[in-house]
Amino acid sequence: NRHRLVEPFHVPDVVMHISNYLSHHGWTTGVTRDKQYKCLLAYNHAAIYANTFLALSDLVSGKTAQKPSM
């Protein structure tokens, strides 16, 4: 943000932080669903978190929900 401080309750800061983290753990444009799942598990080790994140991503993008092949 304009103060150069990460504010944990400021949505743009949170989105940028999570995006940066996932990018550093292999998430790129066109990455497979399995890789997306693994990147999310690196961020939060709970499978329900990764599955919820991916389901919400599908909902927002208008895609049919998928499950990782694991």
Overview of the structural elements:
The chain has three helices and no strands. The model has no long low-confidence stretch (mean pLDDT 86). The protein is mainly α and 70 residues long. The chain starts with 10 loop residues before the first helix and ends in a 9-residue tail after the last helix.
Order of helices and strands: HHH
Give the helix/strand class: mainly alpha
Discrete helix count: 3
Backbone shape: globular
| Proportion in β-strands | under 5%
Share in helix: 55-70%
Q: What does the main sheet amount to?
A: none
- Mean pLDDT reading: 86
Instruction: Point out poorly predicted stretches.
Output: none
Number of E-state strands: 0
**N-to-C terminal Cα separation, in Å?**
38 Å
The radius of gyration computed from the alpha-carbon positions, rounded to a whole number of angstroms, is 13 Å
Spell out the blueprint of helices and strands.
Elements: H1 11-24, H2 33-43, H3 47-61
Helix pairs in contact: 2-3
How would you summarize what this structure contains?
This protein is an all-alpha fold and 70 residues long. It contains three helices and no strands. Helix 2 (33-43) crosses helix 3 (47-61).
Brief descriptors of the model:
70 residues, mainly alpha, 3 helices
